[in-house]
């Protein structure tokens, strides 16, 4: 009943190129934490796609390395549904910097699967508005070289 209740929140999660090989383990953690997986898409972002997704960071010193990394291999984008999904998923991610994550949250996904401050395994939306924008980015327009698109019956 809770899975379909109005208390559900939706976040946009991404498995970044460095962690694609750990998709199975990450999906296991998603399930164990009680999220419902909504729409899911695997694709290889172009550099322009990555620049669009991270447009808010344009001009930051890490923008070039970040967008190059994010277009270097396939990613998985997925909607995760749960009560408080945005905070809950970022909690599971741990701190942005993998080294910090290993110190402060050793069981977090970034501690387990990240490599450094840029190659940090996964993404999570930071607010309701960005979650909606990011879901639209992946599921309401053609993006990159799409490999797989699936829809579950529970997608909102
Ligand atoms: P995300 O958006 O990926 O969930 O991560 P976040 O909120 O924890 O981090 P944010 O500040 O939004 O940065 C987005 C991504 O840019 C890369 N980054 N590199 N100093 C650096 O080298 C640096 N800082 C950020 C990371 O990949 C980060 O997740
Ligand atoms: Mg962010």
UniProtKB/TrEMBL annotation:
It is found in: Cell projection, Cilium; Cytoplasm, Cytoskeleton. The active site is at residue 123. ATP binds at residues 16, 62, 90, 96, 110, 120. It comes from the Eukaryota. Belongs to the NDK family. This is DM10 domain-containing protein. It comes from Apatococcus fuscideae. The chain holds residues 86 to 241 of 379 of the full protein.
């Amino acid at each position: 009943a809770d899975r379909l209740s109005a208390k559900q929140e939706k976040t946009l999660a991404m498995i970044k190129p460095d962690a694609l090989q750990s998709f199975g383990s990450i999906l296991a953690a998603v399930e164990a934490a009680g999220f419902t997986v909504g729409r899911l898409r695997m694709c290889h972002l172009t550099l322009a796609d990555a620049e669009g997704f991270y447009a808010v960071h344009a001009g930051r010193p890490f923008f070039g390395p970040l967008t190059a990394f994010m277009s270097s291999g396939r990613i998985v984008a997925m909607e995760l549904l749960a009560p408080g999904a945005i905070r809950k998923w970022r909690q599971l991610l741990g701190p942005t910097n993998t080294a910090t994550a290993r110190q402060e949250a050793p069981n977090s996904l970034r501690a387990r699967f990240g490599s450094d401050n840029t190659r940090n395994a996964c993404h999570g939306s930071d607010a309701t508005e960005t979650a909606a924008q990011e879901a639209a980015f992946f599921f309401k327009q053609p993006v990159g070289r799409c490999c797989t698109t699936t829809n579950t019956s529970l997608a909102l």
